Amino acid sequence: MSKELNRKCILSIKPYVPGKPVEEVERELGISNVIKLASNENPLGPSPKAVQAMCDIADKVSVYPDGNCYYLKNALSEHLGVTPDNLIVGNGSDEVIKLIAEAFLEEGEEAIVADPTFSEYDFAIKIMGGRTVVVPTKNLTHDLAAMADAVTDKTKLLFICNPNNPTGTIVGKRETDEFLASIPPGVITVFDEAYYEYVTDGDYPQTLEYVHQGKDVIVLRTFSKIFGLAGLRVGYGVARPELISLISRVKEPFNVNMMAQSAALASLDDLDHVIRSRALNEEGKEYLTKEFNRLGLPFISTQANFIWVQINADCRKVFSKMLRRGVIVRTGDIFGAPDVIRVTIGTAEQNRRFIEVLEGVLAEE
Ligand SMILES: Cc1ncc(COP(=O)(O)O)c(C=O)c1O
């Protein structure tokens, strides 16, 4: 009998379904002017300062980047009120999620995630041969009490996506405090705050305080969303230095490229861009929620830059029809909700086009 080539655990990994790129849709359907509201990117693009920084560094790329991200870590420490040894920078926060699993999860150990939530946690857990323990959300919000109850002596990691992708919901401060107080030693809680800068709810927990208190907490943030640098891949984790040092052991030496480091650094110097982006998001949120109400479509009030909306029709059919009319959204079926779409809040013009196309398609259903 021939020997298995692959590690067993990789067969349980569900392939990631990325948002369709604009160019691919235009090429395949022979159309132009396609808009993508599927991957929660910033419709304003990157800060002009980040673009300039990339141009300035373009002729330096013959040498390796700084593997320690010295300048970026220093700027981030100032921005966040932490020290550089509290930080790990990754090729997107996706990479940091994987590094966390690589550093902490032994084969057969458990990691707890919500459902629905961001799929990268399950990917990282499975790659390490860990077991994903899924805890359903309550009213599409993380059920922290049930997640705490799911902890066993095999649990190593807990992932809390806050705001949650795909629902846009958050968990509040008091419940998070209570939850952390109930988690036994030896379990690391990861707060994925990819959409942190979009949150407007005053009850949002400031999780860096848990890091300052020395808790086994890792906070993840990214430059891919409000900072508009998704194509460069820069994200980071914040934790106590001992955890950072363990995660750093499994990091590739030059994981964050030079352009990415310089653009991220320049972005931190242009917080006006963040303010403008947040304001645009708020306007878009208001417009879209008004329109969803007009169309009688139930939606979840969002704390991020996307909205989970129930379309009362088959999401795959609606997706395909919208695609042919040049609007790319995300279908809810990949999150177990076949009558839902998730739409990224775009510019005023993109939002208007999205509503017009959605309304037209739903009228045909
Ligand atoms: C909740 C969440 N975490 C992490 C990521 C990945 O971000 P990055 O581009 O930093 O890898 C995403 C991207 O969609 C996300 O939605």
Key traits:
single chain; 365 residues; alpha/beta; Aspartate Aminotransferase, domain 1; Aspartate Aminotransferase, domain 2; three-stranded antiparallel β-sheet; 13 helices; 12 strands; 38% helix; globular; binds pyridoxal-5'-phosphate
Please explain how this structure is put together.
- This protein has 365 residues and is of the alpha/beta class.
- It folds into two domains: 8-45 and 272-364, Alpha-Beta Complex (Aspartate Aminotransferase, domain 1); 48-270, Aspartate Aminotransferase, domain 2.
- It has helices at 22-29, 48-57, 70-80, 93-104, 120-127, 144-149, 173-182, 208-212, 241-248, 258-267, 271-295, 315-324, 348-364; strands spanning 35-36, 87-90, 110-115, 131-136, 155-161, 188-192, 217-222, 235-238, 306-310, 327-328, 330-331, 340-344.
- The strands form three sheets. Strands 2-8-7-6-5-3-4 form a seven-stranded mixed beta sheet, with helices on both faces.
- The chain starts with 21 loop residues before the first helix and ends with a helix.
- Bound molecules: pyridoxal-5'-phosphate (PLP).
- Pyridoxal-5'-phosphate is lined by residues 40, 92-94, 118, 161, 165, 192, 194, 222, 224, 230, 235.
